[in-house]
Amino acid sequence: MLALQKTRPSPGFELREVPEPGVPADGEVLIRVHCAGICGTDLHIAEWTAGYESMGAAMPVTLGHEFSGIVERTGAGVPASMTGLRVTVRPSTTCGRCARCRSGHADDCTGRVGIGIGRAGAFASLVRAPAANCHALPDGLAMDVAALCEPMTVCAEAVATAEVAPGQKILVVGPGFIGQGIALLARAAGAEVVVLGREDAPRLEALRALGFRALVDTRDVELREALAPLAPFDAVIEAAGVPSLVAACLPFLRKRGIFTVVGIHPRPAEIDLTALVRAHQQIRGSYRAPPRTWDAVLAFLGDNQDTMRRLVSHNIALADAADGFEAARSRRASKVLFHLGNRP
Ligand SMILES: [Zn+2]
Ligand SMILES: [Zn+2]
Asked: Which PANTHER family match (predicted)?
């Protein structure tokens, strides 16, 4: 089968023929992949930015961790009735052996391995995954929209971390797919949402088409000038991964407000901590969502399929991966989705 692999600890990736995975291991299933999205993480891995060195041991490894598919085979200890189930998969697998796992706190597992990072992922027709990581899709939820579940759980966790509440005014920094998803979920939670981009016309336009009106592009207007009349914000959620934007946006957060960081930053951010102290503000990090969030997000996706599809800017075949990565890198794309073995 064709697979998109990281083969060397240096920039780039390879599309190559690899053997199909055989019988799934105990407790695992074999899934025929329908759709798989390119994530910011995949871009970092492709470009080989710092922080992914530990992947070296797994190479060559097939990338892809945001996906949907159908269970084709079950391993020992997995009910055969799972065969044929439409699923999406939590990509973070736990070891089941470490002290944290054995004491029932698998969330703190010290031996986590990511599907599509430390073990074979879904940029291929077939992928293996633990049965316990699979979430069945609700009836009526299409495979392409279901593949957006993983990034949307990241968005849901950010909105929860920021304690977004009805009637609040929220600033979302960065209009990539994660920022867009946060904007949708914060609006669904009853908040008024402002989204800030930097030379982000296509992605802000996608939000405008979904009814967002308070959109700021710092290509057209100076950040301070744009945000001052809209401030103070009850919460700021940063999903751009641009360190300087943390300091630039903090002054527009209200006293006792929460600044939530979701972006992956290439460098430390320099911030005025004394101003933060005097305003009694908090900075929080937000990352992976707990399993219970997945079913809530699947329900949201089922209720908002047309909306979610408008955030998929590219539906392409795996063979066109180079174009897909280029689009994802360019800020033209919101989400690039590979359709495996079925026409886009
Ligand atoms: Zn991802
Ligand atoms: Zn563990």
From this structure: L-THREONINE 3-DEHYDROGENASE
